[in-house]
Amino acid sequence: MSHIIHRSLQSTPLTAVGARGIHIMDAQGKAYIDASGGAAVSCLGHAHPDVLAAMHAQTDKLAYAHTSFFTSEASEELASHLAAHAPRGMDKVYFTSGGSESVEAALKLARQYFVEIGQPERTLFVARGQSYHGNTLGALAVGGNEWRRRQFAPLLMDVGRVSPCYEYRGRQDGESQDAYTQRLLQELDAKFQEIGPQRVIAFVAEPVVGATLGAVPPTPGYFKGVRELCDRYGILFIADEVMCGMGRTGTLHAVEQEGVVPDLMTIAKGLGGGYQPIGAVLVRAEIIEAIRQGSGLFQHGHTYIGHPMATAAALAVQKVIQRDQLMPQVRSRGAYLMRALQAKFGQHPHVGDIRGRGLFCGIELVRDRASKATFDPELKLHARIKAQALANGLLVYPMGGTVDGRHGDHVLLAPPFIVSEADVD
Ligand code: PLP
């Protein structure tokens, strides 16, 4: 019996002993196609020689130096790289060890900014239903995944909640896409008004919704409207790109495709591609400048921020993505994957929707296509799909979410950017 507190306390997972390219090997010698990159993490696949070499070199040079004394060459170079490729003006970088930590840091930075500029009355965040922003208390509070929140709800800060942009279920019969988008923006405006816009710190949203809904892109113009509303009231916009960012959707940042620039953006998973635990917050320079001229200190910090091993690995990952021009490849392989999914499952009686962007695809499962009725949660369909795929040597990321207050099942696919058409087949 394992001493580890595994995700399930009723079973011990397989032991992974090796990995190469898009495959992970277990202790029995069985190979699995990593079709979800873990949880949309493994963007370069496994054991990429350039990343391994960079990690070895960094181990020889410097493994760790506390950031209250030192910066490091690897961290400085990675921050410069991220700033050079960030949306306009977002050229300040705060390093963390992962996604939830990035969201926590973004929430606190946003709050501190308003305290520093003399607007301490801003104390509330607004976020969307059916979203996931992490499992630490602040991130869980802004998240709208009811199943994850339920038992911790009494510990969580109050958050203003609005509907997600989820066309498959949210757009009404006869409603145009534009009318649906305007309806969502009116709901957001009404929420700001209800709270009092001068009390809102930031609106937090995933540009393409990942874990809770399964690769749901926004409708055209939705985020432009969000940006306008936030600007109207001086509210910050935090884009959570922990899952959909760092190239997953075919551009380095998903929000680029919406033509808007957030104030803060959280990134993680694909930043280090799983080679090391690392995340970051990209921040508009004015925000950091205001704090610099005020207290001069972001009142936050963890022991492992800017860890040299992590930043060296992430730098190598990002350089390979750029050198090998993987963004066009993500777009073309993503289109190929989407066509293959449509051809194979598009007419399946229990597939309600196939959606996504780049190499980030979601398949929503329904009991009935016409009514979009969901399966009974007792069936644990998503768990059974995961087990069956695993038995067949395929790693997919299925989730049972909440759909209109009821249970829903979807399967997320997020293969490494190096996936070939033959692999997709
Ligand atoms: N934000 C989003 C959008 C995520 O998808 C996740 C993880 O899936 C997180 C935050 C939390 O990241 P982590 O699991 O690295 O703490």
Automatic annotation (TrEMBL):
InterPro entries reported in the protein's UniProt record: Aminotrans_3, Aminotrans_3_PPA_site, PyrdxlP-dep_Trfase, PyrdxlP-dep_Trfase_major, PyrdxlP-dep_Trfase_small
Cofactor: pyridoxal 5'-phosphate
Keywords recorded for this protein, A-Z: Aminotransferase, Pyridoxal phosphate, Transferase
PROSITE patterns per record: AA_TRANSFER_CLASS_3
Keyword match Transferase: yes
Highest rank taxon of the organism: Bacteria
Record's keyword annotation contains Transferase: yes
Gene Ontology molecular function: any one: transaminase activity
A Pfam family matched in the record: Aminotran_3
UniProt family annotation: Belongs to the class-III pyridoxal-phosphate-dependent aminotransferase family.
Xref: NCBIfam families: PRK07483.1 (NF005685)
Name of the protein described by the UniProt record: Aspartate aminotransferase family protein
Provenance organism: Polaromonas jejuensis
Lineage summary: Bacteria, Pseudomonadati, Pseudomonadota, Betaproteobacteria, Burkholderiales
